[in-house]
Amino acid sequence: MSLWKLLEEGVAQDPSAPAIASGEPALSYAELRARIVRLARELTLLGVEVGDRVAILAGNGCPFLEAYFACAGLGAILVPLGTRLAPAEWRMLLIHSEAKWLLVGDGWTDAAKRIPLPDTTRIADLRSGAGPRLQPWGQTPPALPASNRWIARDVSAETVAQIYYTSGTTGDPKGVMLTHGNVTQHARWAIDEFALGAGDTWGHFAPMFHLADAWATFAATAVGAQHAFLAQFEAQAALDRIQSAGVTLTNLVPTMLQRMLALAPPSAKTRLRLVLSGGAPIAPAVVARVLDFFGCDYAQTYGLTETSPYLTLSLPGPGEAPFAAEERLERISRTGRAFGGVGLQVVDETGLPVAQDDRTVGEIWAQGPTVTPGYWNHPEATRAAFEGAWLRTGDLATWDARGSLRIVDRKKDVILSGGETVYSTEVEAALLAHPDVLEAAAYGVPSEAWGEEVRAAVVWKPGAPGDPAALNGFLRERLAGFKCPKVLSILDELPKTSSGKIKKRDLRQG
User: What is the predicted pLDDT for the residue at 281?
Assistant: First the structure.
């Protein structure tokens, strides 16, 4: 069950079909495979063997896609690095993963030069043009033998394919291991769930170093779909790329969606048929604006790095009729039903399932073939994450009689104020319903009087008048007094992880 098989399936669809959407250097699927083979052969000549870790620091682009498949074909383990980290943090991840090589993409050479490299890691530029794919620093590119013959290494479903370091919004980063079996099964389910086909174009707008986008690298390739890239997210550039490349599907974390919704909507009808969003709960009022802005279908997703990533999807399930018009907005704004064949339950503190009444809150547990075997070189964290075969997500939710989940908060983000439980997502939904608010985060801080007090930080939309007093009044019409923020901070930008998630830990400490 090697990931390499997904590439071969994509090529077999039609070797002459375009793999890369317009606006990028033209590549057919046969040409894409040839580039990946060349990269794999060069990595072999550099001494990369089965099980070796190969890190990558790069923006979105075809070279990143090629690195994913080249390492898969070698049985090596790709370690994507977040682009918003500091040099010392990159060094820590290189040391922890024991990376043999660091591949550096276009535009990231200066950043890589600032990394105090461990002695065991060497660097090579990952080239996007013709000719050699790699340029080892201080060396000439490896001279390839005249023969182009190359056979992907045979690996099992249990072989680790990638290590993703978690965002660290609630603690220190951990290296999540995903196997060839994990990632391949997720791609199979995604193809079915989203009806992916050769006529689709996936927009790589979320970072490819993160599973918010990386899963689509494999699923879209397997069906012979086209890939459209944006090196780094910028709202207007993403909207332009949707039109120019004929993007049909993409995934945008809520912060990206908010930035795009602040723009003028597309001036002409696009080919976009589905926008996915995940990474944080999203308010129905925002979903309504997404539907109107993009003029296409929308689905909420929920998942973890540890689960490849998707666990739920807010689209109708297999055999389920389309949502009725009067309930559609509410249903697609939910966390949703189980994705593919994943197993889910919502349990109380004793590990027993809570009532499916959509009121009783419990922790989400997950199991199945897309769940990580554990954390790289961290057996203690692995043991703590599992209860038997079940992965404890740390996320709190209710579920209804149909098995549809509704996330209410992270365990660590629940605010206990004056004996009352306040879910930060509820406060954020109220904040985001105000027409002047672009981004919002609610969080708790210690308080002698209340145990914890509710605070919030917001970013105004460009050009909005932004009246804090009016916003407080707006909230008091929608929330109980104990849920309203006692302190409201106005910021130019919320602190975020490399994948775009809001770092509440920084807000609490600030």
Answer: 67
Q: Quote the pLDDT of residue 172.
A: 65
Coil, helix or strand at residue 83: coil
Whether the CA torsion 392, 381, 185, 331 is positive or negative: it is: positive
pLDDT band of residue 128 (cuts 50, 70, 90) is confident
Peptide bond connecting 266 to the previous residue in cis, omega within 30 degrees of 0: no
CATH of domain 4-179: 3.40.50.12780
Label residue 143 left, alpha or beta by phi (over 0 means left) and psi (-120 to 50 means alpha): beta
As given in the structure block, the two tokens for residue 277 are 């969003």
Task: Say how far apart CA 256 and CA 276 lie, in whole Å.
Answer: 11
Q: What's the pLDDT score for residue 167?
A: 56
pTM of the model: 0.87
State how far the Cα of 349 lies from the Cα of 8, in Å rounded to an integer: 46
Range 450-469 average pLDDT: 92
Reply yes or no on domain 414-509 having CATH 3.40.50.1220: no
Topology of domain 297-410, per CATH? Luciferase; domain 3 (2.30.38)
Same fold across 4-179 and 297-410:
no
Averaged pLDDT for residues 215-229: 98
Burial group, residue 275, by CB count within 10 angstroms (0-12, 13-18, 19+): buried
Sign of CA dihedral 485, 487, 488, 494: negative
